Amino acid sequence: MMTPMRYVVLVLGIIISLHYILSFSHEAYGRATSISNIKEHIVGSGSGVPPYKVPIPEEYYTAKEVASPQGRKANAVIVMLARNGDLNGVISSMKQMEDRFNKKFQYPYVFLNDDDFNEQFKKRITELTDAKVEFGRIPADEWHQPSWINETLAKENREKMMQNNVIYGGSVPYRNMCRFNSGFFYRHELLKPYKYYWRVEPDVKFFCDLDYDPFLIMQDQKKVYGFTISLYEYEATIPTLWKTVKDFLKENPGLVEPDNAMAFLSDDGGESYNRCHFWSNFEIADLDLWRGEAYSKFFDYLDEKGGFYYERWGDAPVHSIGAALFAKKEQIHFFEDIGYRHEPFQHCPQGASHKKGKCWCDETQNFDYEWYSCLNRYDKMF
Ligand SMILES: Nc1nc2c(ncn2[C@@H]2O[C@H](COP(=O)(O)OP(=O)(O)OP(=O)(O)O)[C@@H](O)[C@H]2O)c(=O)[nH]1
Ligand SMILES: *[C@@H]1O[C@H](CO)[C@@H](O)[C@H](O)[C@H]1NC(C)=O
Ligand SMILES: [Mg+2]
């Protein structure tokens, strides 16, 4: 049974609907004017294919840009160490790498992991680029703490570091990562064919278009190590590193490059370490610098002393000391025009290079000459 109230509501509803339908008839040509007309509009074309599913014809797409002059290209690779769980951060970094640079240059990628990358990881990564992508697994002995490390001592030291709130001080995997990046990545099977690499990490930002090939600059100008940010290392992570470096140099006097960058590392001619290092989450470098005799011996010496596990030696100071002592200072290149951020620091190109790269970072947010930066030491060498 309909109550009178419901009856009134129903009638009012019909009146309002009619009013709307009739008001359309005063509207511009093309609007629905009758039920049959509306039907025509809501029934599909019958093809069974929604229009958006019809591909945009090929001729609308622009040809792939190729930016290498005269088609020249370096023997180079983009390399990223990551876990399956880092996927979203990896994707974010890689997409920016492609958009800002590699879409034009088509350098291949190598992803490395201490575990197998899963299918979802490989699928999402491969979708992001037309360049070749390879996924590699790190041999177990190049990742895990070597058997000759005294675990009792290593554990005691990790616990002390945790009590002192040293960042990653209690972590073994972090130490494995630092040791691997210091002494093994450049020997990996998948990196063997290459001479230059660009190291990328998850969740970094690239702020500017890079319209030239940095690998060709490295090659043509005989650079071996490129950086964007330099800063001081935490003393607590490297208490005996410099003493170990000095012992190594005493035992191997012939290995140091005479025109080295010691002035970047030390303010007293090598007596003490000022803790300056290039931030290795960004590196464009020559793999042969690490593969060469000097650095190979240097890494083996450090590894034997155990500081990667008894302390928490980072790959950043280890690479930096290696580059500064075994290369000429002119071979270490500051990529001023690459806008880059890895939390919590960023390098934002200044002046002309900011405009040239169409950078989206705020020029005033720039680490270069902040109190914790070492760039002034780099500048002073020249
Ligand atoms: N496969 C693998 N990759 C790792 C592991 N730990 C770190 N990495 C990778 O090694 C690189 C450095 O690790 P991060 O955790 O970024 O270390 P960080 O840059 O010193 O510190 P934050 O970025 O501030 O956390 C990144 O590319 C990581 O994805 C690990 O246990 N396994
Ligand atoms: C390992 O380190 C512990 C703690 O410092 C020490 O007591 C022990 O003698 C060491 N073991 C060896 C085999 O050197
Ligand atoms: Mg990182």
UniProtKB/TrEMBL annotation:
* InterPro entries the record matches: Glyco_trans_15, Nucleotide-diphossugar_trans
Q: What biological processes does GO assign it?
A: cell wall mannoprotein biosynthetic process; protein N-linked glycosylation
Official protein name in the record: Glycosyltransferase family 15 protein
Task: Give a GO molecular function annotation for the protein.
Answer: alpha-1,2-mannosyltransferase activity
Which Pfam families did the record assign? Glyco_transf_15
**What does UniProt give as GO cellular component?**
Golgi apparatus; membrane
The superkingdom of the source organism is: Eukaryota
State the similarity comment.
Belongs to the glycosyltransferase 15 family.
Q: Which UniProt keywords apply?
A: Transferase
Q: Which positions are catalytic residues?
A: E283
